[in-house]
Design a protein that fits this description.
5-stranded mixed β-sheet, 3-stranded antiparallel β-sheet
Length: 269
């Protein structure tokens, strides 16, 4: 079964900032994008014990002129009444799919992060979506009440990720597909707080952590390059994946070094 796991967004002020500072647009050919995804996954395998994966990549033209930078979907298998990413349970032909906006404002940055200017870093977005692909993504939704899980054969089963979510008193929020009311509650996987704003947003809420300026926050930042930090490593640990995090990565993401009068890009929001 295939299920959408999450997406990465740009907020209106960031989009407007890039559009007010136009730079030369360089289209990234699909073959280059696909190669970058495969290479980034192999690089992340050096940091985390990710299994080998079959990843399908596409440019999604429906994302042009939207606030979505990219999305990910997982293939899931039902194991012991829980939907498990097929990456851990089956040698599927495709374990997860990644879709990318072919035309973000000013195009993608694919070079040395020291020289990024007025663009989003493609490798950062790839890393973020890979985290969704390997298993970080919620099926919880809201429509006149909270619900979760995926139905098959007339029965509902939860996704592994959602079974890991607890409230601030360390109580699970799920019992099978039955949920407690999580309105305005702080929610966690381990010690990592999840992004759970008062207004639920599908694809963002609960499928990301709530630590702005780090890789798995719901939105990216222009002129910024990010890698796996202690927050992402902790969440992955609950999926049984172990990651090493360098001290430099724990402290802060990598930002471009150029200065713009009146704007300080060291402010993370």
């Amino acid at each position: 079964m295939c299920s959408v796991s999450g997406a990465m967004y740009m907020e209106a002020p960031d989009k407007a900032l890039l559009e007010s500072h136009p730079v030369e647009f360089h289209h990234v050919d699909f073959d280059v994008l696909n190669t970058m995804v495969q290479q980034e996954y192999k690089e992340m395998q050096k940091q985390c014990n990710f299994p080998d994966a079959n990843i399908e990549v596409e440019y999604d033209s429906s994302l042009i002129d939207t606030s979505v930078l990219a999305w990910a979907s997982q293939n899931l298998n039902l194991v012991d009444r829980i939907w498990i990413p097929s990456l851990f349970s089956k040698p599927d032909a495709i374990h997860f799919k990644l879709g990318f906006n072919p035309e973000p404002p000013n195009g993608w940055h694919i070079g040395d992060c020291r020289y990024i200017q007025w663009k989003y870093d493609l490798r950062t977005v790839i890393r973020h979506e890979i985290l969704h692909g390997v298993g970080l993504g919620s099926s919880i939704r809201y429509s006149n009440g909270w619900s979760t899980g995926v139905n098959t054969g007339g029965f509902c089963f939860p996704r592994l990720y959602d079974t890991l979510i607890k409230d601030e008193n360390n109580n699970p929020i799920l019992n099978g597909c039955n949920m407690v009311d999580i309105t305005n509650k702080k929610l966690y996987i381990g010690d990592v707080e999840l992004y759970h704003p008062s207004e639920f947003t599908a694809g963002s809420s609960l499928s990301h952590h709530n630590h702005p300026g780090h890789l798995f926050y719901y939105k990216s930042m222009p002129n910024t390059c990010m890698h796996i930090s202690k927050y992402e490593a902790s969440m992955l640990g609950f999926l049984g994946l172990k990651c090493s995090v360098s001290p430099a990565t724990i402290l802060a993401p990598t930002l471009s070094t150029f200065l713009i009068p009146g704007i300080l890009f060291l402010v993370l929001y």
